[in-house]
Please model this.
Amino acid sequence: MAGLFAGFFAPWLIYALILLVHLILPARQVAGYVHDENTGELLRYRLNGPLVLVALVGLWFGAGYSRLLPWDWLYTHRWPSLAGSCVLGLIISAAAVLPFKGHGGHGRSFRADFYPGRALNISIFRGRVDVKMYLYLVGAVMLGLNILAFTAHHLLLFGTPSSTGVLVYAGLFFWFIADYLVFERVHLYTYDIFAERVGFKLVWGCFAFYPYFYLVGLWAASGVAGSPLPVWQAVTAVCVFYAGWMLSRGANMQKYYFKTMPDRAFLGIIQPRALRGNGHALLYSGFWRVARHVNYLGEILMATGLTLALGIPGSLIAWLYPLYYIVLLVPRERADERRCAAKYGELWKEYVRRVPHRIIPGLY
Ligand code: NDP
Model:
């Protein structure tokens, strides 16, 4: 019973700790891409994701090394911990929607606004914490801690030779998490930040879904002894993952530089050619010339590489992660398309004519 209780409240404690560490550690102060709805000024953010990750991983390591907690404590308490995250996600979602009647939903009922949210941006602690960025930080750091605990469990149970696939998976996933946090600033220019509101989708998504579902492959693999991952399989997984990373990171960075330094050649070689008209500019070179959202393809490839690394290609559960990206990103591309068509008008039509494929160059 005590274990259930501890597991249930563990994420509550960890999320509070992440908030505290985020508040007290030094942070970069940056201007974002989104304008304040009231003042029209660019919103400002305090960003210190990599430091928070290092601090929390350090605490996990310290607790394990000093034998305060077993290395795989979060694994053995995974079910109550997942339940605790879900309940906390519900409570905080309500708290993020209720006080904002009249924002976004424009007088709609709480029921109608609960899922998408009402406020576009919420900041707390006198502007020191942007709620959206905190939510993504929580999701990323908790996902990292879960990966460490699940991997530790596999190692403790089956030993290193049988855990090579799990170790490759954990290494690649840590790259994914660290990469997101190192480039936090670039993510200020993405759809979630400029188009989504703060409601159940975002809050519960970051508290419960992101840190527990993203490693669904590891849930499937953690109780399976497995055999040493053949080198060719490990190499394939790593190549697929990094091919995806290059597409995703490359496209995101190219767009980020275009928005912030429009004349700068990306990586020194890709010229920022653009279609211009009615006061707007759309990038039309490099990654943005091969497909309109090639970064989404990158995300799907990264998820595929991670799944391949586990060495259990017959497990349907392990494939849920790449499948989830297809289900998420295909409709999202359509939604973004509608938004861009409305915003850019004729210019967007011209862009679509010149770059006809949505996500997969030459195919879709
Ligand atoms: P994009 O980064 O593709 O952003 C779309 C926006 O970019 C458009 O609304 C438009 O905004 C601008 N834009 C589109 N085409 C052009 C162009 N040719 N030139 C200049 N600007 C353009 O999509 P997202 O924000 O959805 O995704 C960002 C990243 O996050 C992607 O790599 C995605 O894969 C990843 N992602 C990861 C998830 C995860 O769980 N790991 C979940 C979802 C996304 P504007 O009006 O400002 O110009």
In short: Strands lie at 28-35, 42-47, 123-124, 129-130, 274-277, 280-283. The mean pLDDT is 93. The chain has 16 helices and six strands. The pocket of NDP is lined by residues 190-191, 248, 252, 255, 258, 282-283, 288, 293, 295-296, 299, 332, 336, 339-340, 343 (CB under 6 Å).
